[in-house]
Amino acid sequence: MLFQYIAIAILLVLTTAVGVIAVSLGALFGPKRDTKRKQMPYESGMVPIGKGTRRMPVRFYLIAVLFILFDIEVIFFLPWAVSFRKYIENGMGTFIFLEMLVFIGILLVGYVYAWKKGAFEWE
After folding, report:
1. Number of neighbours of residue 4 by Cβ within 10 angstroms
2. What H or E segment, with its residue span, contains residue 70?
3. Between the CA of residue 115 and those of 11, 28, 33, 46, 96, what are the distances in Å?
């Protein structure tokens, strides 16, 4: 039974070994001369102004999460739309359609919540 997975196990072992060997060779034979110039932070070829670690507004993360949310929504819509005709022919069209309406309803609640909180406003 487990014999079917031997190829995957070999692949995982080989890729892990190649990664470890590559990192080890770089650490062993790579240059190790640190200079003052190499230790300086690099920012577009200019000397940075201010601290390198500054706080980012939460709004950036909120936009990223909303983008992922609605991107995943599209990923679920496409296979449903492609296979919907097959389910209609099998007599399950109404059930599948109602399931998608529930899914859209849940996403709509999240969309309205984000809208009311002002997540789509950009300053």
Report:
1. 7
2. helix 58-89
3. 47, 54, 53, 39, 28
> pLDDT averaged over the chain?
83
Closest of 36, 35, 62, 39 to residue 52, by C-alpha? 39
Nearest Cα neighbor of 121 from 63, 44, 55 is 63
Look up residue 80 and give its two tokens. Answer: 């449903």
pLDDT of residue 6: 93
pTM of the model: 0.48
Helix (H, G, I), strand (E, B) or coil at 96: helix
Q: How many CB atoms lie within 10 A of CB 76?
A: 13
Of 5-14, 27-36, 56-65, 73-82, the poorest mean pLDDT is in: 56-65
Q: The domain at 2-116 falls in which architecture?
A: Up-down Bundle (1.20)
- Residues 63 and 56: their CA atoms lie apart, in Å, by 13
Question: What are the extents of the domains in the chain?
Answer: 2-116
